[in-house]
Write a structure and sequence with these properties.
The complex is a heterodimer of chains A (358) and B (244). By secondary structure, chain A is of the alpha/beta class. Chain A is built from 10 helices and 13 strands. In chain A, strand 3, helix 3 and strand 4 form a beta-alpha-beta unit. In chain A, helix 5 packs parallel to helix 6, helix 6 runs parallel beside helix 9 and helix 9 crosses helix 10. The longest helix of chain A is centred in the first third of the chain and has 21 residues. Chain B has 244 residues and is an alpha/beta fold. Chain B has a single domain, classed as Rossmann fold. Chain B is built from 9 helices and 7 strands, in the order E-E-H-E-H-E-H-E-H-H-H-E-H-E-H-H. In chain B, strands 1-3-2-4-5-6-7 form a 7-stranded mixed β-sheet, sandwiched between helices. Classes of the chains: A alpha/beta (358), B alpha/beta (244). The interface between A and B is medium-sized, with 18 and 23 residues.
Chain lengths: 358, 244
């Protein structure tokens, strides 16, 4: 099993913050913000020392919860400061990006990071449709087309034009091309039928997140079936599973902390907006409709002391088939960093060495 | 068949014969579209006379001339793309610009002409045949009649003689491939770019081999823009003002 640390940047706000998204930017504390990025590098140096394979970053806007609106900037900053660990950009929100620009920036980053880039392409969470006025009804189609264009821009040797549905370019010929060939290891992120099919058709990895082993396992099973349809068999390294883990010294302690976890949705929209969004933002797991996650906290898939968690990882491998765990070890957005560092140390020393062979 | 007014746009069909698509209609609002049925296809008698693609091209050049058309834009689909290339090589002074829709002049090793049941053929030609409604299935008698001609004229996957000549062809050329082409690998597009002195390659997203049927609006827009502005079609004229 390979492990990835999901870095969200810990903004230690001097005062309590409103929970509703978007969070007013006028209350941003500059000192806390500047410190957050330096602390991130210190934390990641430790993550690298503990032997994590990847550090992952994501794209979220208008909130201090995950302070990386441009994951490409985060990844470039991390790549310059850390020397060994792979940088997993999971990933640019494709439907609200210029896909050619994404292809250029990721290629640049792969060269600058000496081939340490891992890429994940995705549609984004519901609230992010509001960020740059993206019509949620078009998000799925724009994602598929944008992903296809990114792959083409990375691999096509001659200048070409793109006559799409949502994107149109007469001239594309990116420099630099990626260092890793034909392109960095790339994952289509999401449990949907469309995402799994896209990954299978283009021989990409599949990234799933947060659901229970059984629910994300349905998506990875569907992905493997689709790969077989396209005549290839993915390995465990083709499947990455992002999940919350609550690790403590003992099971009792972990259960005790589990009860105290925040219960609100990660990017909580106003009720009227949330309801309207639910009506237009269609989501599915391997073709079976599911509501967008707009109410309630994200599930925590791993809870316990080291022995219990090692067993849960074993079961996860059986059910989900993931060869890479992308872990959030403490609720993002929490102003309290010490519990994160304790979990990190405990994971690195008591769990990581024991799950390598799983 | 003809429709529209303006600069003539001559079209040569693919190996399946002449089939009008919504793209023909869209293009006929800007050009005088002349879609030929080449000898031996459709209801015409079996063509045992034409032995090579250059011969077919010169016959078609003669037919165009008989219509009183001197200079024209030329569009070829798949098999007809190769005919169009040969005609442009024979009479470069008569062809303003060339459009090749999923051309079959340069093919990946072992590329086969679409064959099988009507459903299998549809699956090869179109990205999403299920979305198209009823497409008339190919007539087996017509197929039996045209197949010997197609097999005789399609030539090798890589035609060294043709490829050598393409390097001298000055005609501005637009090569289009659907991203879901299951007959000719879209990667063949780059070979035209390598060979032709003035070539633009455009991928039409989510289209199969029959681009004009799968995405007629997208196909007609880029074709018309290229024919009107040639190489300057790379300069965008899209307006982005939302409110004045």
């Amino acid at each position: 099993m390979k492990v990835s640390f999901f870095e969200t940047v810990r903004y230690r706000a001097p005062q309590a913050l409103p929970s509703e998204w978007p969070v007013p930017s006028g209350i941003y504390d500059r000192d806390a913000g500047a410190r957050a990025y330096e602390d991130m590098i210190q934390r990641l140096e430790y993550v690298e020392e503990l032997g994590f394979d990847w550090v992952s970053v994501s794209e979220h806007h208008y909130s201090p919860r995950i302070l990386t609106p441009s994951p490409i900037v985060s990844a470039a900053f991390i790549a310059a400061r850390l020397k060994r660990i792979k940088i997993a950009l999971l990933g640019p929100i494709v439907p609200q990006s210029n896909p050619v620009r994404v292809a250029e920036e990721l290629a640049m980053l792969d060269n600058m990071a000496q081939g340490r880039l891992v890429a994940g392409l995705l549609r984004g969470t519901s609230n992010e449709s509001l960020t740059y006025d993206l019509n949620p009804a078009e998000a799925r189609e724009r994602t598929d087309e944008g992903m296809e264009l990114i792959l083409k821009a990375w691999t096509e040797p001659q200048p070409f034009g793109w006559q799409g549905r949502h994107f149109k370019y007469r001239t594309i010929s990116i420099w630099p091309r990626p260092l890793q060939q034909p392109h960095p290891p790339t994952f289509a992120l999401g449990t949907s039928r469309e995402s799994c099919e896209f990954a299978a058709r283009h021989h990409l990895g599949c990234g799933v997140s947060y659901g229970s082993f059984d629910s994300v396992g349905r998506a990875t099973k569907y992905y493997r079936e689709q790969c077989a349809q396209y005549g290839w068999q993915p390995t465990a390294d083709h499947i990455v599973y992002r999940a919350n883990m609550l690790l403590a010294d003992t099971d009792e302690e972990a259960q005790d902390q589990f009860k105290k976890l925040p219960t609100q949705a990660p990017f909580s929209m106003r009720p009227a907006v949330r309801e309207a969004m639910t009506a237009v933002d269609a989501r599915n797991i391997a073709g079976e409709a599911r509501p967008p996650i707009t109410i309630g906290a994200l599930p925590t898939a791993f809870v316990g002391g080291p022995d219990t968690v090692v067993e849960q990882v074993r079961r996860c491998k059986e059910v989900v088939g993931a060869g890479v765990l992308d872990l959030s070890l403490h609720p993002p957005g929490s102003r309290d960093v010490e519990p994160l560092m304790r979990s990190l140390e405990l994971f690195g020393k008591k769990v990581l060495p024991r799950i390598r062979e799983i | 068949m003809q429709a529209g007014q303006g600069v003539p746009l001559v079209h040569f069909h693919g190996a399946g014969g002449l089939r009008l698509t919504p793209a023909h209609e869209l293009l006929s609002s800007r050009f005088r579209v002349v879609a030929f049925e080449m000898p031996g296809f459709g209801d015409s008698p079996e063509n045992k006379r034409t032995q090579t693609m250059p011969e077919l091209a010169s016959t078609m050049g003669w037919a165009i001339n008989k219509l009183g058309i001197d200079t024209f834009n030329l569009m070829g689909t798949s098999f007809g793309g190769k005919t169009a290339l040969w005609l442009a090589l024979q009479s470069p002074q008569n062809v303003h610009a060339l459009v090749l829709e999923a051309p079959a002049a340069i093919r990946q090793p072992g590329a086969a002409s679409p064959a099988g049941t009507p459903e299998e053929i549809a699956r090869l030609l179109y990205a999403h045949p299920e979305r198209l409604g009823s497409i008339p299935p190919p007539d087996p008698a017509v197929r039996a009649k045209t197949q010997p001609l197609v097999q005789r004229l399609r030539g090798p996957d890589r035609d060294a003689d043709l490829e050598a000549r393409l390097q001298e062809l000055p005609t501005p050329t637009l090569v289009l491939f659907g991203t879901l082409d299951r007959v000719i690998a879209p990667a063949m597009g780059r070979v035209y770019k390598d060979l032709l002195p003035s070539c633009h390659l455009v991928f039409v997203y989510d289209a199969g081999h029959a681009i004009g049927t799968d995405r007629p609006e997208a196909f007609a827009e880029v074709v018309a823009d290229f024919l009107e502005r040639r190489e300057a079609f790379v300069i965008s004229r899209t307006e982005t003002v939302i409110h004045p």
